Amino acid sequence: MKLMLATLRRDAVLAARNPGEWLNPLAFFLMVIVLFPLAVAPEPDFLSRIAGGVVWVAALLATLLSLDMLYRADVEDGSLELWHASGEPLYALALVKALFHWCISGLPLTLLSPLLAVMLHLPDSAYLALFLSLALGTPVLSLLGGVGAALTAGIGGGSLLLALLILPLYVPVLIFAAGAVYQASLGLPYTGELAMLGAMLSLALALTPWASSAALKLNGLR
């Protein structure tokens, strides 16, 4: 636990020293939401129908932009090898990294999205569904993204490969999350979609850290 907390503190210090790495995805998310109504018909009825999908696509792409930095510093400065030499399981490292990534990417997106959805004329009945879908779905994006980041950690310029690996895994999350918001906007029940997101989160918490640790052993400890 001490090593996990030390890793969290180290990552927080690195993020504070390099704010652009985590602010750029957030700025991208904000720009997409702000500019989208200007690029299409700014009619409230039209925007309200697609608001949930727009917010979720922007959140997904913003999360993807920040995945490349997940293990890059650990590979470059040898921290990954030191962690392995300490005898601590790489499972713990993968879990801490995914948690920290969510804190600096998924959590801000979740908190900002209901406010920005006002610009897209999201119906009042869908705000709770949007918040809950992001609260359940963005951790899944970080956990799945951690696997891709671990696979490409030792590859220079692996951002494109990372996107190709992870995007297909993100599609089910996008479908159920956007579906929940759309169902809520129509006044229909959306608990089924949220239950699926909760199941995905449970599976991701149980499986992805093990997959990430195996990938780190291949890429970071050769």
TrEMBL record:
Residue spans crossing the bilayer: 21-40, 46-67, 99-120, 126-153, 160-182, 194-216
The UniProt record lists the keyword Cell membrane: yes
Function: Required for the export of heme to the periplasm for the biogenesis of c-type cytochromes.
Protein name from the UniProt record: Heme exporter protein B
Cell compartments where the protein resides: Cell inner membrane
Membrane topology according to the record: Multi-pass membrane protein
Organism this protein belongs to: Thalassolituus maritimus
Main location: membrane
